[in-house]
Amino acid sequence: MKSLKTSAVRGTAFAATVLFFCTGLAVSQEPPPASSTSSQNDSTLNAVHDLQEQVRQLRALVDDMRAENAQSRAEMQQLRQELQSTRSLLERPATLANHPPAPVSAESSPYGVPSPAASETTSTAASASQRSSGTLEDRVQKLEESTSLIGSKIDEQYQTKVETASKYRARLSGIVLMNMFRNQGASNNLDFPDFAQPTPGATPGATFGATLRQSQIGLEIFGPNVAGAKTSANIQLDFAGGFPATGNAVNFGIVRLQTASLHFDWEHTSVVAGQDSLFVSPLSPTSFASLATPTFAYGGNLWGWTPQLRIEHRFDLSDQQTLTLQGGIFDNLDWEYQPDAFYRAAHAGELSGQPAYGVRTSWSRPVFERPLSFGIAGYYGRQNWTWGRYVDAWAGMLDWQIPIARRLGLSGEFYRGRGIGGLGAGQGRSVVFGDNPFSPLSPLRGLNDIGGWSQLKLQITPKLELNGVFSEDNTYTADVRGFAIDQNNFGLILGRNRGALANFVYRPRSDLLFSAELRRLRSFPVYSSSSVTNQVNLAMGILF
After folding, report:
1. What is the Cα–Cα distance from 456 to 462, expressed in whole angstroms?
2. Which of 160, 194, 227 delimits the end of a domain?
3. I need a labelling partner for 318 at 20 to 30 A (CA). Which of 57, 227, 383, 393 fits?
4. Count H helices, E strands: the chain?
5. Is pLDDT at 109 greater than 80 in this prediction?
C-alpha cells in the first residue's frame, strides 16, 4: 500500500511539475511586434493554440491522477479498517486464553459430580476459541497474500498494457510463426501452395525453404457503450502482401491487411461493418502450414476477406440451443486483377451498380463440451462484363460441426454455385471467354462449380491433436470444352483441384505450438494432364 501511495504521489508531483512548466511557457509567450507579417502572426497563434491544447491535456491528466489517488486513498482506508476489525477479533481468543471461565464445581451438580453438559460446554467453548483463532489467523494471512497479489497484478498490468490516445483499452495479439517446408513438384506458390502445376523442363522436382511471412499481428479496441451496445473494433495484418524489388526479397514480405471491422454487440443482436471473413462460409480446416490463405483455398474451401455490412440475431430456443440468423451485403468482387498498382478500377460485380447479398441461418448446442452445429447459407451477386454481357452469380452452402465422441469431431462445408470466383471457387475464375477477353464482342459464360471439404479431428490429449482433411473443387467442364481455350483465358483452366492433408498440432502451453503436416495437391487442367505437389511442413510459433 505504501508503494502504491508513493508511486501515485510521485506521479501527481511529476504531472503537476510538467503542468506548471508548460503553463509557464504558455504565459511567457510575448505577442508579436506590430511590424510582423501576417504569416508570422498565424504561426505564433498556432503555436499558442498548440501550447494551450497541451496545457489542457496535462490538466485533464492531473485531474485523472487526482481522482485515482483519491480512490486509492479510499481503498487503503477501507483496508486499514478491515485489518483493525480483524485484529480486534484476534484479541478476543487471546483474552479468553489468559482468563478462562471458572470450572464447574461438584457442589453445583445435584449428584455431587460435575454436570456432563457443563463439561461439554466448557470443552466446546475452548475448542471453538482455538478454531476461531486459527480461522482468523488464516483469513488475515490470505488477506495479506491477496493484497500482495493484487498489487503485483496492477504493476504487471501497468507495465504490459497497450496505451491508446483515448481512454478506451486495447489488446494486442498475434502469432510469430516460422514454417520450414520441402516440396516435391511445382505449384503456384512455393511456401503455401494452392494448386499444382507442371514442373518446367530442366527444373529440379524438389525444393526446400523457410518463411516467417505468415506471422500475424492483431489489435482489438474496446469502445464505449452506444444505445445499449458494446462497441469494439479489430484489425489483423500479416506479411504476405508480396515482395520488394531487392535481393533476398523473400525475407522482406510486405505488410498486408487481412481483416478490419467494427462491432456493435447487444445481448442477442450484433452489427458488423468492415473487411471480414465470409459469414456465409465461416469454417476452415485446422492447419498452421497455411495462414496467409485459408487451408485449401481454391481447392474446396470458399473464403475471402471482403468488405461487408451484416446483422445477426440469436434466438435462445432453450438453455443450450441457439438459432442464429445472419444477413448482409458484400463488396461485389469477382477476383479480377487490378490493372494499376496505385489506382483502383471497378470489377465486373461493382459495374453492376449493386452489392452482393448473403444470408445464413444456423442451429447449435453443446455436446461433449463442444458445439454441435449445422448451417445453411445463400449468396447472390450480379456481374456486368460490359457490352451487354451479364452474369448472375449465385451459391448455396452447407456447414457442419459434429462431435462424434468426447475426443473425436467431424466438421466441413459443401457448396454449389456459378460465377463465384470472387469467393475462391473455380481457382478464382468466375467466367470463361470464348474469344479474346479484351474484345467487347467476345462471348462469355459463368462457370458452374461444386466443391467442399471435410475434417476429422482427434484430440489425443489436451495438448496434442491429429487432423485429417480432404477437399475438392470441381468446375463443370461442359462450360469449357468446345467453348473456351487456355490461350483466351489468362492461363490454364483447371477443371478440378483436389487436396488432402494430415497434421499433428502440439501445444505444450497455450501460447506455444509445434506442428508437422503432410499435404498433397493434385490439379486437373481441362486440356492437359494432371500435376501433383507434395509438401512436408514443420511449423513452430508463439502466440501473444
Report:
1. 16
2. 160
3. 227
4. 3, 21
5. no
